[in-house]
Amino acid sequence: MVFEHEIPKGSRLYFGKVARAKRALENKVCAILDDKGFEEIITPNFSYSQHQSIENEKKLIKFSDEKNEQVALRADSTLDVVRIISKRLGRTTDHKKWFYVQPTFTYPSTEEYQIGCEWIGHNNIADIMNLTTDILKALNVEPILQVSNINIPKLVAKELNIDIDLFKNGEIASLFKLKCDWLNKLIKVKSIEDLEGIVNIVPSSIQDQLKKLLTRAKEVNYSNMIIAPLYYGSLKYYDGIYYRVISDNLTVCKGGMYSSEGSCSLGFALYTDSLLKILED
């Protein structure tokens, strides 16, 4: 039996002190993004293209429109923002830096507020990582910034002829069982210094992507950073260097490089509830 006052599990309710804190957080981050030249956009809650964003399509909340075309509630904002700017608004604006404050929805009834931005046609991931860390510093928090390169686990899997799912599922014990010296050392990389020590002993097919990761990591001005070259994330559109910000068991932010509409772009999403939690703590 469902009572009238109940709300679905996973949905959000903000009131009183928490609602004020949420509004203050959003206003502060939006002011920083506005000062950096980003303009605001609010995209539709419904989308035709969410299957291109989410690795596990079972997480999508799907239904049909009046023409029986499949529609999904917005589970991710990135590709929709780029498509709307490029395809729908391209004749009226040539602006490339956009931010949004809006929720995403995943099956069965999970609602998650995000503050995010997209930098269309820009390819230096260090710039967007430094923007992320500038925001964290302005909020007086310093969670872990984990930097990775999605191409490295793909190249390692190809080099060793192993299943990419070992990386997707984080099966580190299985990787150690391969008894590959350079792979064991790569697994243990955590810092820029570690990465410098391994970059020239891995197979040549992997070196270029490791060097790209090393170069961009050195451009980031943040002390609490770790390098995770073999991490494999869940968003399917990242195709280069990407990152996440974590605090204990909370994911605070995800961001990275992706290709859309024929050009490289950058973006990130800050998870509002995670930020509220660490700010409260």
UniProtKB/TrEMBL annotation:
<dbReference type="InterPro" id="IPR041715">
    <property type="entry name" value="HisRS-like_core"/>
</dbReference>
<keyword id="KW-0328">Glycosyltransferase</keyword>
<dbReference type="GO" id="GO:0016757">
    <property type="term" value="F:glycosyltransferase activity"/>
</dbReference>
<keyword id="KW-0808">Transferase</keyword>
<dbReference type="Pfam" id="PF13393">
    <property type="entry name" value="tRNA-synt_His"/>
</dbReference>
<feature type="domain" description="Class II Histidinyl-tRNA synthetase (HisRS)-like catalytic core">
    <location>
        <begin position="19"/>
        <end position="274"/>
    </location>
</feature>
<dbReference type="InterPro" id="IPR004516">
    <property type="entry name" value="HisRS/HisZ"/>
</dbReference>
<dbReference type="GO" id="GO:0004821">
    <property type="term" value="F:histidine-tRNA ligase activity"/>
</dbReference>
<dbReference type="InterPro" id="IPR045864">
    <property type="entry name" value="aa-tRNA-synth_II/BPL/LPL"/>
</dbReference>
<dbReference type="GO" id="GO:0005737">
    <property type="term" value="C:cytoplasm"/>
</dbReference>
<dbReference type="GO" id="GO:0000105">
    <property type="term" value="P:L-histidine biosynthetic process"/>
</dbReference>
<keyword id="KW-0368">Histidine biosynthesis</keyword>
<keyword id="KW-0028">Amino-acid biosynthesis</keyword>
<dbReference type="GO" id="GO:0006427">
    <property type="term" value="P:histidyl-tRNA aminoacylation"/>
</dbReference>
<protein>
    <submittedName>
        <fullName>ATP phosphoribosyltransferase regulatory subunit</fullName>
    </submittedName>
</protein>
